[in-house]
Design goal:
The complex is a heterodimer of chains A (111) and B (896). Chain A is α+β, with helices and mostly antiparallel strands and 111 residues long. Chain A contains four helices and three strands. Chain A has a single domain, classed as Winged helix-like DNA-binding domain superfamily/Winged helix DNA-binding domain (Arc Repressor Mutant, subunit A, Orthogonal Bundle). The chains are: A alpha+beta (111), B alpha+beta (896).
């Protein structure tokens, strides 16, 4: 790893979880791993923030969960996006894009 | 609960539901979370093993990455709101256990808080009923009482005066600001219930009187406009209580006739129990029968004689100020139109609520402030107790902190314990308040407007809950904050910390005690000023001797005693019989007893310039029988008293009071001079004697009341107050004297039987009760402050046992030790006194209106109260100091 793993900006973890689950239902460690892999190790997610986020998103009705057998035949809790979660992801993505573009513009013009 | 949850109601619902599920499925949720986290760990380890890490190391690394399993769980649990509830529940259970473990401490804390909360609840329930709750009329805020303002030259110091019929009728026809303006006046009926005659208070009211208040009868109807006219007014409406007690709540009463004053009246209505009659608060007027005015044209034309009250309802949208302006305009028109009667007479609007409760508001607010002080002192005391326990718990708290409890969590735990205490205190306080309220109502019912409405209602209960929680927080916050500041390492190292250099909150405790002393000094000074006032008031010479005098009021029905001669005859016969009774020294009668007020009239002195009536000075006019002045022991200073020869057919004579003589004949001898009472213009009256001044309108009225006494025989009247001087206890002669009344007329009732001492006592009963309450609260405050001082010093002595031991070992004498401890207490007390005096100087101004010939900064009171507080404080210091002198140096040094 070239640089130290970055702590996530408050709130972005929720978005990353939603994005990860947009493809298929996954269990907790799978999600953590996927985020780490896709971000090429820039973001390391620890359990202490991941699991509270699951609980929060579930309470908000953005995730659903069920117990299922894993690939190596053990029981694990799988999380899945709800319809509300899908909508939320869409709007968050759009908003993120807008903000990122704006920040990029500011950084370019001032340098 | 996350903020998101609050954004939409559906989400909120989901959170509530999820939380509730969480509460009830806590164990299952925990199991699942545990399983999920273990799965996570396994998966993490698996991934590492697949990368070639040996099993044990992979598991260890996964654990390291994850951190404490328990703290992850704790964070997940913290997402839902239910965890907070569960924690509070846990804390409460823990609190109950801790409190139960030290029942002595709990009892002291709960009782202390209960006293404070109880006193507050009781006083607040009075304030609530009397000052806060709207009057029991629809849109009561728009109801005003309309008074005359008399010309200040004739009536110095008076701002509200009764109204004359003719002026009222002009107000009514000329104003545009009132929806309705109605007049009513005092009345009384002789009513025979079985064979027991009684006098019933009544009111003569205009036909629309009830409409202007917007009250409806419970049964029947209100009066019709034509019933205002004389000749059509033989109808009555009954008050609920009267209907119940005298007619057995008979529902068929409507349309029946009742005999009043020997005439037949038809009952047309009964008022509901909630109806409250708008009587001025000091009038002692609670009418049970309402009758129409029944005015003749002659009655309507009376302009110069003021005997009625007026109540009005402002049109909606009309401001009090606007209405007042219009009444001013009307009044000045009337002044010009009828200068003889109305010159100098204005009008003033007083909101009815102000009218009813304006007099007691300052006293109630002072009492409310006093109990607030008491509660603060109680809180300070409980905080002090808690601080002492803090020391014992520092270790416990330190361990909790070391194990990862956040500051907030520790605060919550300590506060939940004090809240438990304060809520228990609140419950007990409510019980105390119930008795307190009964006591207040019992003693003050007659003097306190709206006293029947006092009780514990929803608002009072809410108030009690709020102050309970408040006092729990206040009492708990100080120790809780100190506790959470504890340095973990220090606390754990020190063990019980007895030898620590840390003050153990000693400074905090000292501040609390100084506050207590200061607050109780303020209360004591307030009470002291009230006591001084009462004492000054008792020393006022009423101008008569109130001991051993029995009085009663005898109203003759004018229908039976039509002619003045008959009335005179009745009282003559009565007095003869009463004077003949054994145990009676002398007897007489007057139309108005001293202290109770009475009629005044404009007067003209012969030989002095003649001015219009409205500019003539007003003097009190009393009609008395021979023997009255002697019975009351009003000294005859010069001239002669009335005698049996001063009758109708003899020239009119008067006695005048000393102040009257000085005012009107400053350089001459008044005896033999003549004066005219304006309401009896044709009669010249010769002054035959000068008597001492009597407090006619109450003890507190400083200005001497110039009084003219005339013999009853010259102007007999249908009612008189009998005064009887007795050899022994006046109360023992009540049945003999009322028996004498019945011997003269079997049907004649008597009312208001009272000794003159009782009447004197009543005239300061409200002041006395306010004083008693204030003194009780101040006493309570003093007691609590003394306990506070005692607590701080005992604690300090316990902490300094070692030091004292060393001092004694080094040769310190008992006196030195005493001085050491008492000195510490005294320093706290003096600091409290200094602060208290400053606060008191600022606050006692609020008492000014309630004091009598005492300045709010009366130095004597300040010094006496400070001395009292100091001596109590010394006593509180002495007990722990004595304990300190008994310290055995050997034991003390071996300590620990």
């Amino acid at each position: 790893m070239a640089e130290n793993p970055t702590t996530l900006v408050q709130g972005t973890l929720d978005m990353l979880i939603l994005k990860t689950l947009a493809l298929e239902p996954m269990h907790g460690y799978g999600i953590a791993l996927r985020i780490e892999q896709i971000s090429r190790g820039v973001f390391q997610v620890n359990a202490g923030s991941l699991f509270p986020a699951f609980r929060r998103l579930e309470r908000d009705g953005l995730l659903e969960s069920e117990w299922r057998a894993t690939e190596n035949n053990r029981r694990a809790k799988y999380y899945r996006l709800t319809e509300a979660g899908r909508k939320k992801l869409k709007s968050e993505t759009r908003e993120w894009g807008r903000q990122a573009a704006a920040i990029a513009r500011i950084l370019e013009t001032s340098s | 609960m996350s903020l998101n949850a609050l954004r939409s109601p559906i989400k909120l619902l989901r959170h509530v539901a999820g939380g509730l599920r969480g509460l009830f499925r806590k164990e299952r949720d925990d199991r699942e979370l545990d399983e999920e986290l273990r799965g996570y760990l396994d998966a993490a380890a698996n991934v590492k093993m697949r990368a070639g890490v040996p099993h044990d190391e992979a598991v260890r690394a996964a654990r390291m990455e994850m951190g404490s399993l328990e703290s992850v769980k704790e964070e997940v649990r913290a997402v839902g709101w239910e965890t907070g509830v569960a924690a509070i529940w846990q804390d409460l259970r823990f609190g109950v256990r801790t409190v139960a473990k030290s029942p002595g401490f709990a009892a002291v804390a709960i009782i202390t808080l209960a006293l404070g909360i109880g006193a507050n609840t009781a006083i607040f329930s009075v304030v609530n009923a009397v000052l806060l709750r709207p009057l029991p009329y629809p849109e009561a805020a728009r109801i005003v009482q309309v008074w005359h303002v008399p010309p200040p030259k004739s009536f110095p110091g008076m701002t509200r005066f009764a109204v004359s019929p003719a002026n009222y009728l002009d107000w009514r026809s000329q104003n545009h600001v009132f929806e309705g303006i109605e007049i009513y006046g005092f009345g009384a009926f002789n009513f025979t219930n079985g064979d027991r005659p009684e006098v019933v208070q009544a009111a003569r009211v205009a036909a629309d009187f009830f409409s202007v208040l917007r009250v409806q009868p419970m049964m029947g109807r209100i009066f019709a406009p034509e019933e205002d006219q004389s000749g059509h007014s033989d109808v009555v409406i009954l008050a609920h209580a009267f209907w119940q007690s005298r007619f057995g709540a008979n529902r068929d009463i409507i349309g029946q006739t009742v005999a009043l004053n020997g005439n037949k009246y038809t009952v047309v209505g009964v008022m509901p129990p909630s109806f409250q009659f708008p009587a001025p608060p000091d009038a002692q007027w609670n009418p049970q029968i309402f009758a129409p005015l029944g005015w003749t044209d002659k009655d309507r034309a009376v302009r110069g004689n003021h005997n009625y009250l007026v109540v009005a309802r402002l049109r909606s949208g009309v401001e009090l100020r606007q209405a007042q302006a219009e009444m001013n305009a009307i009044s000045s028109r009337l002044e010009q139109q009828y200068p003889e009667d109305d010159k100098g007479w204005g009008a003033v609007l007083v909101p009815l609520r102000e009218q009813l409760v304006g007099d007691v508001r300052p006293a109630l607010l002072v009492l409310l402030g006093a109990v607030a002080f008491v509660l603060l002192i109680a809180c300070a005391n409980v905080a002090n107790l808690l601080l002492a326990r803090t020391l014992a718990r520092r270790k416990e708290i330190a361990i909790r902190t070391a194990l990862g409890a956040g500051r907030g969590r520790v605060l919550q735990q300590v506060l939940s314990e004090t809240l438990l205490l304060s809520l228990a205190g609140g419950a007990l306080g409510l019980l105390l308040a119930r008795f307190g309220i009964d006591l207040i109502v019992h003693f003050l019912a007659a003097r306190l407007p709206r006293s029947s409405e006092i009780g514990l209602d929803a608002l009072v209960l809410t108030f009690t809950l709020v102050i309970s929680v408040f006092s729990g927080l206040v009492a708990g916050l100080v120790p809780a904050l100190r506790l959470t500041r504890t340095d973990v390492n220090q606390a754990l190292k020190e063990g019980l910390g007895r030898t620590s250099a840390d003050s153990g909150g000693q400074r905090t405790r000292s501040v609390l005690v100084v506050t207590e002393v200061a607050l109780s000094l303020v209360l004591l000074i307030g009470a002291g000023l009230m006591i001084r006032s009462l004492w000054m008031l008792r020393r006022v010479d009423p101008g008569f001797d109130p001991h051993n005098v029995l009085t009663m009021f005898i109203p003759l029905p004018q229908t039976k005693y039509v002619k003045p001669v008959q009335q005179l005859e009745f009282f003559d016969q009565l007095l003869q019989r009463v004077r003949a009774l054994p145990g009676v020294e002398s007897a007489g009668a007057t139309d108005a007893l001293p202290l109770m007020g009475g009629s005044t009239q404009p007067v003209t002195i012969e030989g002095q310039p003649i001015v219009p009536m409205s500019e003539q000075p007003e003097v009190a006019v009393r009609r008395i029988t021979p023997g009255y002045l002697r019975t009351m022991r009003v000294p005859l200073q010069r001239g002669r008293d009335f005698n049996e020869g001063d009758t109708l057919d003899r020239p009119a004579v008067v006695l005048i009071s000393k102040s009257m003589a000085e005012q009107f004949w400053p350089k001459e001898d008044p005896i033999g001079k003549h004066l005219t009472l304006t309401f009896f213009r044709d009669t010249r009256r010769e002054v035959v004697g000068i008597v001492g001044d009597v407090k006619q309108d109450g003890l507190e009225v400083d200005r001497p009341i110039e009084t003219v006494y005339g013999p009853v025989a010259k102007n007999p009247g249908p009612w008189m107050s009998l005064v009887v001087r007795t050899a022994g206890k006046p109360a023992s002669l009540v049945s003999a004297v009322t028996g004498a009344v019945r011997e003269v007329d079997r049907e004649q009732p008597v009312v208001d039987v009272a000794t003159m001492e009782e009447i004197l006592g009543n005239s300061f009963s409200q002041r006395r009760f306010t004083m008693l309450l204030l003194a009780a609260f101040a006493g309570l405050a003093l007691l609590l402050a003394a306990i506070g001082i005692y607590g701080v010093l005992s604690y300090a002595v316990r902490r300094r046992v070692q030091e004292i031991g060393i001092r004694v070992a080094l040769g310190a004498q008992q006196a030195d030790v005493l001085r050491l401890v008492v000195g510490q207490g005294l320093r706290l007390t003096l600091a409290g006194l200094a602060i208290g005096v400053v606060i008191a100087l600022g606050l006692t101004r609020l008492l000014t209106g309630m004091l009598f010939s005492v300045k709010p900064t009366d130095p004597l009171t300040f010094v006496a109260v400070a001395a009292l507080l100091c001596s109590i404080a010394l006593l509180a210091c002495y007990l722990p100091a004595r304990r300190a002198t008994r310290v055995d140096p050997v034991v003390a040094l071996r300590y620990e």
